[in-house]
């Protein structure tokens, strides 16, 4: 297996068979025979834009690209879990508001469990954030 790089950036892993079969073909806008190929371990899957530095992979994405991607991921996770929590609690709200009947404790326990699960996923992306503490926007 060979790894294709372009301007130092990871562009995929290809078998020797694929390369030989397509040597004179154009794939993704360039001739396979003109590809820059290296033999190396695959880059860490946590890299957003893996870049080959001659002997190792590094993160090629800018701080802003990583921040923007993380915000998008965190927003999606938060929205998903807010929807789950709303679906769990919503049926009890009319009774709570109108008749002052408390939300059952097992529902509140499930709600806390969902919030903790959501926070765990968010903190895996950015340890400084949580469902209840969203990212602070850059003040420029």
Descriptive keywords:
alpha+beta, 4 helices, elongated, 140 residues
In terms of topology, how is this protein built?
Layout: E1 2-6, E2 9-14, H1 16-21, E3 26-27, E4 30-31, E5 36-38, E6 50-52, E7 57-59, H2 63-89, H3 93-99, H4 105-125
Helix pairs in contact: 2-4
What does this structure look like?
- A hairpin with a 2-residue loop joins strand 1 and strand 2 (9-14).
- The protein is elongated, with a radius of gyration of 24 Å.
- 44% of the residues lie in helices and 17% in strands.
- The protein contains 4 helices and 7 strands; from the N terminus they run ββαβββββααα.
- The protein has 140 residues and is an alpha+beta fold.
Distance between the termini: 46 Å
The DSSP helix count reads 4
Uncertain residue segments = none
Number of strands: 7
Q: Enumerate the strands of the largest sheet in spatial order, edge to edge or round the barrel.
A: 2-1-5
Characterize the overall form: elongated
Estimate the strand proportion: 15-25%
Quaternary class: single chain
Radius of gyration from CA coordinates: 24 Å
Brief characterization of the structure:
The protein has 140 residues and is α+β, with helices and mostly antiparallel strands. It has helices at residues 16-21, 63-89, 93-99, 105-125, and strands at residues 2-6, 9-14, 26-27, 30-31, 36-38, 50-52, 57-59. The mean pLDDT is 87.
């Amino acid at each position: 297996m060979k790894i294709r790089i372009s301007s130092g950036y990871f562009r995929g892993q290809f078998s020797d068979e694929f390369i030989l079969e397509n040597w004179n073909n154009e794939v993704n806008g360039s001739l396979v025979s003109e590809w820059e190929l290296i033999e190396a371990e695959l880059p860490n899957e946590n890299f957003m834009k893996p870049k080959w530095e001659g002997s190792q992979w590094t993160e090629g994405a800018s701080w802003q690209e990583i921040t923007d991607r993380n915000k998008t991921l965190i927003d999606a996770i938060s929205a998903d879990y807010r929807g789950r929590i709303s679906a769990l609690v919503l049926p009890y709200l009319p009774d709570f508001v109108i008749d002052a009947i408390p939300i059952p404790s097992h529902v509140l326990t499930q709600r806390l469990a969902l919030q903790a699960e959501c926070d765990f996923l968010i903190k895996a992306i950015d340890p400084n954030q949580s469902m209840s503490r969203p990212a602070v926007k850059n003040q420029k």
